[in-house]
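input
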Amino acid sequence: MPDSGWLWALFTVIAAASQTVRNATQRSLTTSLGTAGATHVRFLFGFPFALVFLGLVLVATGEAMPRPGGIFWAWLADGALSQIAATALMLAAMNDRSFVVVYAYIKTEPVQVALFGLILLGDAVTPLMAIAILVATCGVVLTGLRGGANLGWRPTLLGLASAAMFGLSAIGFRGAILSLDLANYVMAATFTMMVGLLVQVVLLSLYLAWRDPSVMRAILKAWKPSMLAGFLGAFASQFWFLSFALASAASVRTLALVEVLFAQAISRFVFGQVTTQREAYGIVLIVIGVVLLLFAH
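output
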């Protein structure tokens, strides 16, 4: 893969911003489709756009479709299945009504990603990068944990397990991209994203059709509002995968914590919610961590 320069950082910020808007869009679908249905929307309606993105890359580059080997499929299975498992664990936490607590623990993902990346991919973590990851993660946890929050063992385990699965997912997708060993990182990232979405669409569609066919019918009926969520999901995924092609998953997922800043901005300027002192301290730590991470690169 080529020297990333600052492109990985730009791609990550675009992905985080798009994901924030997508989350807000999906929230409106939860009422009619339920949590599982609204979650599946990002895969089902994102896949057609992933095909479009791949088609544009094929036309623009004139290159042939990649021919992945067995190691690609192993990494891809890890990425796709771990992401589904992570989402399921997060939904279980929501059912426990401990979302705020679990969200904070989920955002410990960069720490776990750094460890997984070092062990599985050999992605080095410099001392400055390690400090940046810890500082930014502490900022997110401080922002998410509010006074009086329930810190019981169940939400703690669910949050940490979900973070681990999200971390393994990032490592799996980066491993799949690198295993293609293509000179064109855009082709490698876009192809991997498309195939990953295809696997997730097939698995989740079969699962919902088996467990609750009415949810699948409701999703198909709500195709108009779901198209925007699908596009935003695919658009965000496109830039996540481009970032994974150029930088370590630990760097990408740490910088991705700027998503918290975007969410805070929406809460403040759109919904008029006041930022608490605890949240302000957390935001300062996130900014310091991000600056240290960029300096480390």
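quick obs: The chain has a mean pLDDT of 82.
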